[in-house]
Amino acid sequence: MTAEKISMEGKPIDIKTPAEAPLTRLSFFREKLGLDNGAIDVLAPFAQKIIEHKHDFADYLYEYFIQIPETKSILSHDTWPKVIKNNWSTTFDMLFSNGPDEELMDYLWKSGVIHVRLNIDQRYINLAYSLMRIFCRQVVREEVDGKEFDDAQAVTDKLVDLCVLIATDAYLDSTTKCDREVVRGIAHQLRNPLMVIGGYTRKLQKAIGPESPDMDALRAILDESKRLEKLVADVSEYMDMYREDARRESLDLKVLMDEAVEYVRAKHTGDFPVHVDIDPSRCMAYADRRDVFTAFKHLLLDGLENIAAPPDGGEAAITVTTQPDPRDERYMEVVFFNTGEPPRPEELDFLFTPFHVRAPMGAGFGLPIARLAANKNLGRLSLTPVADKGLECTLSLPEPPRS
Fold first, then answer.
1. What is the dihedral of CA 219, 222, 227, 232, to 10 degrees?
2. Range of the domain at 82
3. What is the CATH number of the domain that holds 42?
4. What kind and span of H or E run contains 176?
5. Where does a domain end: 180, 201, 231?
6. Of 128, 156, 180, which residue sits at a domain end?
7. What is the pLDDT of residues 109-125, one digit of tens each?
8. Where in the numbering of this chain does the Histidine kinase domain appear (predicted)?
């Protein structure tokens, strides 16, 4: 099929221009809708008759949206009526010609990306697919024999459902990518000035005597620049994790925890009272390696930032243990406990909010990143204050599938 052209500000855009469609993810949706393994064969005897309605479908959508002021302004462009009708009729044709093959999914996804580029309100895209469902139902009712009607109607509904899912995926992918690029740009623009500020502050510290009245001010500037550098790094890490799909595999959490401990030890200055005691019989999880390592890293760093001697006496420490998840036998828990003053009950709701800071030099992203890692991997992260002792952070993760 030749590439369709869509006009934006008078310049043609090839429908193939956007990045490659995530066919693996889209195929997952197709499978979950039950559209694999010849499910659409029931439509084959009637496909040609249904396809004959493709131009009627394009006219139907056009006449509907030309009545809406917000969409009329787009459709009234000199080149649009013919182009957009051609796109709509092509979509209808492809839907019933070959079903939800990779060519159709690629076409729909890239069309969705271009809708975002053209700043078309996604609600109108969803409305168009609702109208598509109505039109397809009417055509199937006209063209399909009575005994085959129910099955044909069900498959047609699933095809439209897949169209909606693909359009939604394209919308989310494009908008989050835009957000991420903005954040990346801000982070990049901040990183260099912060390095310059830090470098010159250190030079000034060396140039003046340790007893200088300016030393405290320089120390404060350096500390704040370090905190901002950490904030920039954490924001970038959060956005990257938010966008990337989890690649789940069987993980030995003892090995991963040892790696996280060594990483944090190299970064941390001062005492390192971390004690790890992982049960060998409860050390396997099924999750994304990078996500879990990142969660471990931030939970350890958060504990070290907030550690203190427990109010009821004793030494400051962080302990890490594993245990079965009492709520679900298919899950296991990694429990991080750090001594210190536990957060107030009313503060718990805010601890997972980005930028909420407990420690003086914290960036407010450690717990949000750890929770995002848990959620991406079908797990949970919960906080339990222990009166006069400290805070318990429990990361629940699925165990590997049992054969």
1. 170
2. 5-180
3. 1.10.490.10
4. helix 146-207
5. 180
6. 180
7. 999 988 888 888 999 99
8. 185-401
